[in-house]
Amino acid sequence: MRITVKNKINFQGIGLHSGEESKIILHPYKKKGINFLRKKVRIPAYIDYKMDSRRGTILKRNSQQIETVEHLLSALYVLGIDDCLIEVVKGTEIPILDGSSYPFFHKIKDAGIEKKEGEKEVLSIKKKIVYRKKSVEIKAYPCKNYKINFLFDGTKFNVDNEKESVVVNKKNYENFSKARTFGFWKEIEYLKKNNLARGASLENVLIIREGSPYKTDFRLANELVKHKIIDFIGDMALLGKKIKGEFVIKRSGHYHNGLFMKKIMEETNGFN
Description:
The protein has helices spanning 70-78, 102-111, 170-176, 188-193, 223-236, 254-267, and strands spanning 2-5, 9-14, 21-27, 34-38, 41-44, 58-61, 64-67, 84-90, 113-116, 122-124, 129-133, 136-141, 146-152, 162-167, 182-184, 206-209, 212-213, 242-250.
């Protein structure tokens, strides 16, 4: 059986990078897949439409693009939702809300799901797959579950390294879904000069200054790496399948996650 959302679900807020007001509506979907809809252009949530971006995940088709889709896609994936139409009513970016995926996960879960005809597609890692680029490394191994082992290297920003290992399921995800988008004090000028993070505030971003949270506290132990795992799940959702495999990740982000997914496509002959 495949799963879609049971009812319409609304989210509204500010876009992290655009700084513009954003509104989206999730609709039950009779067709197949997760699809965004903006100005009558349908953009599938699929790797073929992912742009090579480092600050968030961007999907583009023809003249339309949708930014910062990773937290929403992460929540949809863990909730087992295969099919959904996401109407982008206002703005070009998914609202950042509180900077975590928890508001998406919680509201969608409470709204309920609906089963529909069709088989859930599965991607099972059959052999070891390795992606390396300088200090970034991602390895995939066969596994009956979806397991992620992630090392966040904080050396560059004078924060402690963080490591987490988790089996991806609803119970575990709810425990770490409150981990927030984070940024570092030393990056602020760069972001401003490049017209990024225009919607960022202490309400939706965890700022790290001199190795510690700025004007707040950590919500969770190892909050930085836990948010990296949220992002990885959201990016990997662009493969469009339920995943079975173990992933060992060092220092990766959105850009390298995208290249790793292309590596998986190559190694599996496009899943054939």
